[in-house]
TrEMBL record:
Alphabetized NCBIfam families for the sequence: eda
Subunit annotation: Homotrimer.
InterPro entries cross-referenced by the UniProt entry: Aldlse_KDPG_KHG, Aldolase_TIM, KDPG/KHG_AS_2
Pathway: Carbohydrate acid metabolism
Pfam name, any one: Aldolase
Keyword Calcium in record: no
Keywords: Carbohydrate metabolism, Lyase
Family affiliation: Belongs to the KHG/KDPG aldolase family.
GO-annotated molecular function: lyase activity
Name of the protein: 2-keto-3-deoxy-phosphogluconate aldolase
Natural source organism: Dielma fastidiosa
Amino acid sequence: MNFNEVLDQRRLLPLYTVKDLEECLAVGKCLVEGNLPIIEVAFRSDYAAEGIKALSSIDGLLVGAGTVKTTAQAQQAIESGAAFLVTPGLSAEVVEYAKEQNVPIVAGAVTPSEIMQANQLGLTCLKFFPADVYGGISALKALHGPFFESTFVPTGGVTLENYKEYLALNYVKAVGGSFILPKELLKAKDWQGLSSFIKGL
């Protein structure tokens, strides 16, 4: 399955920061077992590229890179095996590079001007981050009027308590965040529990 198919089917994008390669492989296997075969590896640690490489060895898991802010990071991510990119904001340079490499990209855009710029770059699926700071559900409802052709992936302040409210909006393609991989289950290394939790979302 490709990036769009997985997102359309499950509408969840787990965000993960790699700190330990052994743990990251266990997490990747839990996602496949939990029928959510996708992971966004944040470029927030020195292990990001290594983590992408390791996770890409898991059959059936679609691995992408998140928190990509520069073309150099995008290049490193793609060379390590990233099948998609997610950026916190809008960089025309990074978007054009991803398009040249034929790699899907979800770029961050929260204001009307940014959304217009993203649309002009050919992007219609956009990251809405940090969702809670920029008005959450009410902001998305307001933006949908003029930007009815765009879909959004809200992250930042999306939680277990409110993610279904976001998903009730049909122009929300998916929601993302680390809430999909609860810290307490990771800390306890409760892989069976994590697989079950993911399956239940």
